Amino acid sequence: MDLLSGELNARLKAASGPTLWLVDENIQLSSAPNAAVTVVGNRFDVIERLEQQGWQARFGDFELSDFANEQFDCILYRVSKEKPVVHYLIQEARRLLAPQGCLVLLGDKGEGIRTYARKAASCLGGERQEQKLGKDSWCAHITPGPRAGDCPEHQNYPELRPACEDDTRVYWSKPGLFGWNKVDRGSAFLIERLPEMLGQSLPLAGRMLDLGAGFGYLSLNAAGPDTRLTCTDNNAAALLACRFNLQQAGLEGRVVAADAADRVEGPFDVILCNPPFHSGFAVDGDLTDRFLSAAARLLDRNGTACFVVNQHIPLERKAAPLFKDIQLHADNGHFKLVRLRQPIHP
């Protein structure tokens, strides 16, 4: 367990007064559930696991408006990867902390923890203390006080907004979602070549799964009125944006919160996927493996799964135990398209 996780676990164990624990992707937990702690997080798999362990946990896009002012003695937060999320939660801490409360921020120097601590102290108007846990790991304590100033800009974090566009439509999204304000080049490459990969024109008919849907780009460009569409993602912000974009486009579809489609039942005729390979601040190759396993489980025996991945990811090798028919369809020097057929079911 790393130093930051060790410090977080110690504080969770010691919490006695009302405590709010804000959870993103970064978590290594050894502490038993503590009845004094309320957990709010935006990753479905993390919250589901905490609930199963007995924590008071709820999943959502950090919706904190129903908590009372000055409700918590302590707020614990291992800072997120996305800056607007951190800025938004610092602002919320000012409202939620009791006068003698404390905001505890944990993070590495390269993640901006010391800058966040200074911004939090300016926003809350109290004292700031910083503790160096290791070479690059820091813990900051910030208290409310009489000198409250401007809070850091969070780009109106809670609200969906027109974030990017292409020749066909405007896409609504929000901070907190990876790549929230751009059309992903890999996904665009997949849509461009999808008719060739499938041997049929768009929009698609039949049962389609958008696996790791994000704000819904693949669904919006591949689905139509005859598509029986399911979209799934682990991120609360992605689910909100995907639902809204489908509604704006007049498309019907199920949008399911799930961890690598573990709550989804097949089979599907077509599965589209641009799998994430980042978890928190780290690169996680296991995510690609889990998305491939999900595709093999959910794909109809006569169906097709179309993946787009960064050129360096060995998707063909990873897919070999799961599919009989694996074809590299295209490689543009940055991304490659891989078509998978004939899943190997146990």
Automatic annotation (TrEMBL):
<dbReference type="InterPro" id="IPR046977">
    <property type="entry name" value="RsmC/RlmG"/>
</dbReference>
<keyword id="KW-0949">S-adenosyl-L-methionine</keyword>
<keyword id="KW-0808">Transferase</keyword>
<feature type="domain" description="Methyltransferase small N-terminal">
    <location>
        <begin position="34"/>
        <end position="121"/>
    </location>
</feature>
<keyword id="KW-0963">Cytoplasm</keyword>
<feature type="domain" description="Methyltransferase small">
    <location>
        <begin position="172"/>
        <end position="338"/>
    </location>
</feature>
<keyword id="KW-0489">Methyltransferase</keyword>
<dbReference type="InterPro" id="IPR013675">
    <property type="entry name" value="Mtase_sm_N"/>
</dbReference>
<dbReference type="GO" id="GO:0008168">
    <property type="term" value="F:methyltransferase activity"/>
</dbReference>
<dbReference type="Pfam" id="PF05175">
    <property type="entry name" value="MTS"/>
</dbReference>
<dbReference type="InterPro" id="IPR002052">
    <property type="entry name" value="DNA_methylase_N6_adenine_CS"/>
</dbReference>
<dbReference type="GO" id="GO:0032259">
    <property type="term" value="P:methylation"/>
</dbReference>
<dbReference type="InterPro" id="IPR007848">
    <property type="entry name" value="Small_mtfrase_dom"/>
</dbReference>
<dbReference type="Pfam" id="PF08468">
    <property type="entry name" value="MTS_N"/>
</dbReference>
<dbReference type="InterPro" id="IPR029063">
    <property type="entry name" value="SAM-dependent_MTases_sf"/>
</dbReference>
<protein>
    <submittedName>
        <fullName>Class I SAM-dependent methyltransferase</fullName>
    </submittedName>
</protein>
<keyword id="KW-0698">rRNA processing</keyword>
